Amino acid sequence: MATLDSLSLFTGLGLSEHKARETLKNTALSAQLREAAIQAQQTLGSTIDKGTGTLLYGLASRLRDTRRLSFLVSYIASKKIHTESQLSAALEYVRSHPLDPIDLVDFEQECGVGVMVTPEQIEEAVEATINRHRPQLLVERYHFNMGLLMGEARAVLKWADGKMIKHEVDMQVDPGMDRVAKARLQETDRRTAKDVMENGEAAGQTLSLMEQLRGEALKFHKPGENYKTPGYVTTPHTMDLLKQHMEITGGQVRTRFPPEPNGILHIGHAKAINFNFGYAKANNGICFLRFDDTNPEKEEAKFFTAIYDMVTWLGYTPYKVTYASDYFDQLYAWAVELIRRGQAYVCHQRGEELKGHNPLPSPWRDRPVEESLLLFEAMRKGKFSEGEATLRMKLVMEDGKMDPVAYRVKYTPHHRTGDSWCIYPTYDYTHCLCDSIEHVTHSLCTKEFQARRSSYFWLCNALDVYCPVQWEYGRLNLHYAVVSKRKILQLVAAGAVRDWDDPRLFTLTALRRRGFPPEAINNFCARVGVTVAQTTMEPHLLEACVRDILNDTAPRAMAVLESLQVLITNFPAAKSLDIQVPNFPADETKGFHQVPFAPIVFIERTDFKEEPEPGFKRLAWGQPVGLRHTGYVIELQHVVKGSSGCVESLEVTCRRADAGEKPKAFIHWVSQPLTCEIRLYERLFQHKNPEDPVEVPGGFLSDLNPASLQVVEAALVDRSVALAQPFDKFQFERLGYFSVDPDSHQGQVLDFTPFCNSDGVIENLGLLILGGPSAPLG
Which residues form the Glutamyl/glutaminyl-tRNA synthetase class Ib anti-codon binding domain (predicted)? Predict the structure, then answer.
């Protein structure tokens, strides 16, 4: 009953039911918010409006000195504190004045209590600001950074309502704009850019990635206008910090792609790469590649190299490659400052004690600042064992987690700093501060990091450093796949796949090895769209994007997987003929390649049947077939069988194709070929969701497809591919697409991807390995 009452109380403050339930999971926060709400109701004698409720929630979640709760609630309930900037100033004041009694006159002056800002004052301040920037504004028009105008106006009128300032800026800069029409236009653009996903299929026309990410297609803030973002927390220092930020960046969009170097990137990371690098590129900005190397136990040099290779393979060049470890000295100095400000403390609770939604509060939370400073220095000097001490921040996160860890002890040498450090910062501590150091404007991350947004804003503000804006988007997943690092390692350990680049996986190195062009992966990301909701796509949509590219870029060749020798008894020449084969039959202007045509050719065994079933159109008794590109038709004369009764070879006669009736079919063939090994792949998993315990009760390892790999050791290919280099791609006629694999002997391995047969049915994927040049067969 108490829970239901609290839920009703919290939703009455304006919290969504989901947010209210999440708040209830945090005992300390919910108790403080309940006390604040009850006191406010008693003061008001009526229901609490949403604006007041928002301030009360901000107070309960950010106030550390609970003795001041009643004092500050009285100011909020009486409307003496009625804006976020006033609340931030009040919290800063009580933090910096811990001793009783509070000087009310000084407090009210510092918090803007009783300060009245009239519409006329706002109008005059905005007009003066616009006049200072009028020449630049007239030139740049709608490209001008309006945040600069708002920031300067707010600097003059510290306690003015931000919405009123924005409205006045809009009116004076663009008095004739129809706001309703503009809002409708923006909503239409947003819906178009989002490219709504239905049932795992891309619905509607797909905009290019650049079109989706450019300008106002996304409702992101402009550089310098961070404070316009819903949920962004401002302080009395915010506008000065934003002004300094703009002076450093010149209003340039800055993003970053921050992978952990403890595994290989997968198809989901391709969306993140395209989103971060693409948003910067579409808006004339820059993007950092920053390695989050704060966990030395799991990091390996090969992962750094592979990640960089994949970013450049997808066509992006980082503005700069940085590492979290570049900033270890600064991060440590800020941690010391955080302790000095009473916002962090050294704790001795063990890891298992911190798990779950409602762990016991730390008994060391209120230890003296001087004591935490000494203990943190001791951590730095290696006087604690691993797990014996951590540095924790004093805040409550959006998911109810209380006091996340900022530093922990690890005695593993770091790949860049060696043994210089035995304490390492966590993601929650490092991420936002590295963004701040690099003056990132848009910190783009997937939805699971939404629960860390509060700590992101809190930490930057607690240290009075520039605070970027975190924006979340939906993850990209594929059916019939697992992409987690831990589970791929299990697959490797179980022998189900060879390594991270096994072509049955959906890591980016595996896709490259399979022959997927980077343009196709980028096009797939564009087709998925910049969605907020998590998206799980069918693999055939990715394969369709690959076909679109390879159909125009992979030259044709001929290969035979399961060969049957054919002797042409009346071959029309004394020696082999040179046949010109178009590289792209649909566009012969792209050139030709030459293949030999000799008395002995090899065809697919499945292209011949002694006793064909109805509808069989290829070689049989009384049923001739054409040989592609030769201009000749062959007709069966004799079947040669071995002692076991199996067909070993055929003897045929040939005639010109224009010398008689047109055959029902033309088949591919090879003559004087190269031998090779082909690995044919099908899906690694049998079920669409191998990690779903309902669909696969035995776990994903029990769902392996036993036929996911088939090796053809004696396949034959025409000699036109003999000089192919690693990652060169071909379309083998009537079979599918191949890519030269770097593992091949003498550099000749082809990655085979037969996406669809002549009937358009999706088929298996495979890998072709060419050995060294062999003597011509036959």
Answer: 554-654
Question: Is 298 tagged catalytic?
Answer: no
User: Distance between CA 53 and CA 32 in Å, rounded?
Assistant: 13
Q: Which of 19, 95, 475, 655 is catalytic?
A: 475
Distance separating alpha carbons of residues 535 and 461, to the nearest angstrom: 33
Q: Residue type at 510?
A: A
Q: How many residues does the chain have?
A: 778
Q: Which amino acid is at 240?
A: D
The rounded distance, in Å, linking the Cα atoms of 507 and 660 is: 53
Query: Which residues, other chains included, contact 383 with Cβ-Cβ below 8 Å and sequence gap of 6+?
Result: none
Burial 13-22 (b: 16+ CB within 10 A, else e): bbbeeeebbb
pLDDT for the residue numbered 300: 87
Reduced to 3 states (helix: H, G, I; strand: E, B; else coil), residue 414 is strand
- List 473's β-bridge partners, or say none: 446
Euclidean distance between CA atoms 745 and 748, whole angstroms: 6
Q: Which of 21, 25, 485, 734 is catalytic?
A: 485
Cα distance between residue 470 and residue 34, in whole Å: 29
SS (H, E, C) 658-695: HHCCCCCCEECCECCCEEEEEEEECCCECCCCCCCCCC
The separation between the first and the last C-alpha atoms of the chain, rounded to the nearest angstrom, is: 88
Active-site entry in 35, 123, 124, 260: 260
What does the alpha-carbon distance between residue 470 and residue 36 come to, in Å, rounded to a whole number? 29
SS (H, E, C) 757-772: CCCCCECCEEEEEECC
What pTM, to 2 d.p., does this model score? 0.69
Phi, psi for 562 (deg, rounded to 5): -125, 100
How many angstroms separate the CA atoms of 727 and 750, rounded?
8
Which pair of tokens denotes residue 618?
A: 């290829």
Alpha helices in 133-236 (DSSP H): 134-140, 146-156, 162-173, 179-194, 209-213
Six-digit token string for 89: 């100033």
For 661, counting Cβ atoms within 10 Å of its Cβ (0-12 exposed, 13-18 middle, 19+ buried), the class is exposed
Q: What angle do CA 494, 484, 475 make, to 5 degrees?
A: 155
DSSP 505: S
Structure tokens that stand for 41 in this block:
């109701």
- What is the C-alpha separation between 455 and 462, in angstroms, rounded? 10
Structure tokens at 499: 């390594």
Phi-psi region of 569 (alpha: psi -120 to 50; beta: other; left: phi over 0): alpha
Give per-10-residue mean pLDDT for the chain (778 aa): 70 81 83 90 82 88 87 92 87 85 90 83 85 76 64 81 75 51 39 36 53 68 91 91 96 96 92 93 94 93 93 96 97 98 95 77 94 97 96 84 92 94 95 97 89 88 96 90 91 92 94 93 88 83 92 94 96 94 92 96 96 94 96 96 94 94 94 87 92 92 92 89 87 88 60 36 36 34
CA dist 208 and 192 (Å) reads 11
Question: Can you read off the two tokens belonging to residue 769?
Answer: 């390995």
Please tell me the predicted confidence (pLDDT) of residue 177. 36
Whole-angstrom Cα distance, residue 774 to residue 608? 26
The three-point CA angle 134-140-141 to 5° equals: 75
**What are 357's two structure tokens?**
């939604």
Check if the beta carbon of residue 738 is closer than 8 Å to that of residue 728: no
Dist CA 157 CA 154 (whole Å)? 5
Q: Cα separation of 342 and 96, whole Å? A: 9
In angstroms, the Cα distances linking 341 to 104, 461, 471, 593 are 22, 12, 28, 74
**12: Cα separation from own chain's centroid:** 37
Please indicate whether residue 485 is annotated as part of the active site. yes
Whether 337 is a known active-site residue: answer no
Residue of 303, 242, 315 whose CA lies nearest to 277: 315
Contact partners, residue 317, CB within 8 Å, separation at least 6: none
The predicted pLDDT at position 141 comes to: 55
